[in-house]
Automatic annotation (TrEMBL):
<dbReference type="InterPro" id="IPR037237">
    <property type="entry name" value="IlvD/EDD_N"/>
</dbReference>
<dbReference type="Pfam" id="PF24877">
    <property type="entry name" value="ILV_EDD_C"/>
</dbReference>
<feature type="domain" description="Dihydroxy-acid/6-phosphogluconate dehydratase C-terminal">
    <location>
        <begin position="403"/>
        <end position="590"/>
    </location>
</feature>
<keyword id="KW-0456">Lyase</keyword>
<keyword id="KW-0411">Iron-sulfur</keyword>
<keyword id="KW-0408">Iron</keyword>
<feature type="binding site">
    <location>
        <position position="154"/>
    </location>
    <ligand>
        <name>[4Fe-4S] cluster</name>
    </ligand>
</feature>
<feature type="region of interest" description="Disordered">
    <location>
        <begin position="552"/>
        <end position="572"/>
    </location>
</feature>
<keyword id="KW-0479">Metal-binding</keyword>
<comment type="pathway">
    <text>Carbohydrate metabolism; Entner-Doudoroff pathway.</text>
</comment>
<dbReference type="InterPro" id="IPR020558">
    <property type="entry name" value="DiOHA_6PGluconate_deHydtase_CS"/>
</dbReference>
<comment type="function">
    <text>Catalyzes the dehydration of 6-phospho-D-gluconate to 2-dehydro-3-deoxy-6-phospho-D-gluconate.</text>
</comment>
<dbReference type="InterPro" id="IPR056740">
    <property type="entry name" value="ILV_EDD_C"/>
</dbReference>
<dbReference type="Pfam" id="PF00920">
    <property type="entry name" value="ILVD_EDD_N"/>
</dbReference>
<dbReference type="InterPro" id="IPR000581">
    <property type="entry name" value="ILV_EDD_N"/>
</dbReference>
<keyword id="KW-0004">4Fe-4S</keyword>
<keyword id="KW-0119">Carbohydrate metabolism</keyword>
Length: 599
């Protein structure tokens, strides 16, 4: 029996989404009904498509089996995607085993937020998601494919791939992850050195050595940020082969999971079964949100879930997330919410444990039409090799109760993502990372318009007091809504000095956000006269996760908004001017593509 609140929220989303969902299903029905028989396509068109296929050319020419599109976000600057280098040739072998063929349909951009953090390139980060969706659409526009394999892991890449693939939702599709890098320097030690550097007590060389100890080899970064939250959500939605999320790159088990993904999509393509657009429905979207809440995942997904849901005609908002959070318990504590990383999480039971607990407690939808398995129950198991054969088994009890707990004995009774709202707008507050003693902060604010200005004020000692730091003009239409992680070390230092500190911003902090209470993604944004543009230094601001309040006692009604800043150019930012102009608000997904398409 599904929890009544989850049932009620899901039903509300279904009712709200009826017109858009019906239009979406009509679209994919129409697209699926178009000439799928490639023998009807012009011979010249086919020759172009088959010319580079080498040993698969004959199978393609005779239409011997399904042809699977591989859409890859490979590059070897992004550690999580570096293992994809050899994937196409391996996936083609696995396809031949299944009586199918596979072709690399196209590549997508894949930027690393860790590299661009605090730099000008971060202003392209969020909009790269829409560029990835468009690149996926271009890859699949050739109408040569019967199924899709999506190779992507990191922050904007999985949501972008999903948004693009959903517009071809008449095809079956699976994500193929490559797994996390081995654990390095402990997260506690990494955080300690970062704060020492912020205080001027560690050198740049010491900081770099610490960071290289953390990020050191191919594979996904091991903290539970947006990339690993992506993998968790794909499991919750049934869009992986079960248990594929956190198995190490290059291992025999990883190779068998990759093989199973190709065979599975080939089977679905032959049977014309489980098209992606039917699998990603209201219940699957709610499961993604539930997984996010139960594991304390990235707040970036308060933006990405509404965006990819819209691509399938499903409308979900922050009120839905907050209501789900009120009944979904926190069953996992993974860094930055705990001390262990995703490798420790996986070894303690991982996603099989989480999904089994949620399904058993009626806290997730068991009747999602999964792509990667016959039913969601298999996602509550863990993969293993039984004499070289891929199999699944019950994950057993938690291997570490400081990392994973039963749904009946959780770390917290709620999912730790709360909506705060008031005369300063609506924002997200990730309470799972914050000590409850800091759930309410009320103090005079200091208003900034850049991260660097905050850093300068910190170094000058101007923030050594109780303070709400407001960083505005960081929304999607102002500058692309960059992450603001340069703020984390100095604000953490102020908090450790005993001050009451909070952050309020229309920018992002994502899954690496830590212990400082933060109202993020403020909507409406400051640009164009939003409430944050009316604040002045010294106004008393209250952020309260208990009452859900984001407000100021100042009278804003008589004030003139601060002038909108001119957009910066350079680092390609001018190329994204149309994205900034078209972007809608964060709660709708901050998607210029969806807004422009009227979706």
């Amino acid at each position: 029996m599904t929890h009544p609140t989850i049932t009620a929220v899901t039903q509300r989303i279904i009712e709200r989404s009826k017109p858009t969902r019906e239009a979406y299903l009509a679209l994919i029905e129409r697209e699926g009904g178009k000439a799928q028989d490639r023998t009807m396509v012009s011979c010249s068109n086919l020759a172009h498509a088959f010319a580079g296929a080498e040993q698969d050319q004959e199978a393609l020419k005779t239409n011997a089996g399904p042809n699977i599109a591989v859409v890859s976000a490979y590059n070897d600057m992004l550690s999580a995607h570096a293992p994809y280098y050899r994937y196409p040739e391996r996936l083609k072998v696995y396809a031949r085993e299944a009586g199918a063929t596979a072709q690399v349909a196209g590549g997508t951009p894949a930027m690393c937020d860790g590299v661009t953090q605090g730099e000008a390139g971060m202003e392209l980060s969020l909009f790269s998601r829409d560029a990835i969706a468009q690149a996926t659409g271009i890859a699949l526009s050739h109408a040569m494919y019967d199924g899709v394999l999506l190779l992507g892991i990191c922050d904007k890449i999985v949501p972008g791939l999903l948004m693009g693939a959903l517009r071809f939702g008449h095809l079956p599709a699976l994500f193929v992850p490559s797994g996390p890098m081995p654990s390095g320097v402990s997260n506690k030690e990494k955080q300690r050195v970062r704060q020492l550097y912020a205080e001027g007590k560690a050198t740049r060389a010491e900081l770099l050595d610490s960071e290289l100890g953390s990020y050191h080899s191919p594979g996904t970064c091991t903290f539970f940020g947006t990339a690993n939250s992506n993998q968790m959500m794909m499991e919750m939605m049934g869009l992986h082969v079960p248990g594929a999320a956190f198995v190490r790159p290059g291992s025999k088990l990883r190779q068998q999971l990759d093989r199973a993904a190709v065979h599975r999509v080939s089977e679905l393509a032959k049977a014309k079964a489980r098209p992606l657009g039917h699998c990603v429905d209201e219940k699957a979207v709610v499961n993604a949100a539930i997984g996010l809440l139960a594991t304390g995942g990235s707040t970036n997904h308060a933006i990405h879930i509404p965006a990819f849901a819209r691509a399938a005609g499903v409308i979900i908002d922050w009120s839905d997330l907050a209501e789900l959070s009120s009944v979904v318990p926190l069953v996992a504590r993974v860094y930055p919410n705990g001390s262990g990383d995703v490798n420790h999480f996986h070894e303690a039971g991982g996603m099989g444990y989480v999904i089994r607990e949620l399904l058993s407690a009626g806290l997730a939808h068991a009747d999602v039409l999964a792509s990667g398995a016959d039913d969601m129950a298999t996602y509550g198991e863990e993969p293993w090799l039984d004499d070289e054969t891929l199999a699944w088994r019950d994950p057993g009890p938690s291997g570490d109760t400081e990392m994973l707990r039963p749904a009946t004995e959780p770390f917290a009774p709620d999912g730790g993502m709360r909506l705060v709202a008031g005369n300063l707008g609506r924002a997200c507050f990730k309470s799972s990372a914050v000590d409850p003693s800091r759930y309410t902060i009320e103090a005079p604010c200091r208003v900034f318009e850049t991260q660097s200005a905050v850093a300068e004020a910190f170094k000058a000692g101007e923030l050594d007091r109780d303070v709400v730091v407001v960083v505005r003009f960081q929304g999607p239409r102002a500058n692309g809504m960059p992450e603001l992680h340069k703020l984390t070390p100095p604000l953490g230092v102020l908090q450790d000095r005993g001050y009451k500190v909070a952050l309020v911003t229309d920018g992002r902090m994502s899954g690496a956000s830590g212990k400082v209470p933060s109202a993020i993604h403020c909507s409406p944004e400051a640009l164009g006269g939003g409430p944050l543009s009316l604040l002045r230094d010294g106004d008393v601001v209250k952020v309260c996760a208990v009452t859900g309040e984001l407000s100021t006692s100042a009278d804003l009604s008589t004030r003139t908004p601060a002038p909108d800043p001119e957009p910066e150019d350079g680092t390609g930012r001018e190329l994204f001017a149309m994205y900034r102009v078209m972007a809608d608000e964060a709660e709708k997904g901050a998607s210029p593509m969806m807004a422009a398409a009227g979706l």
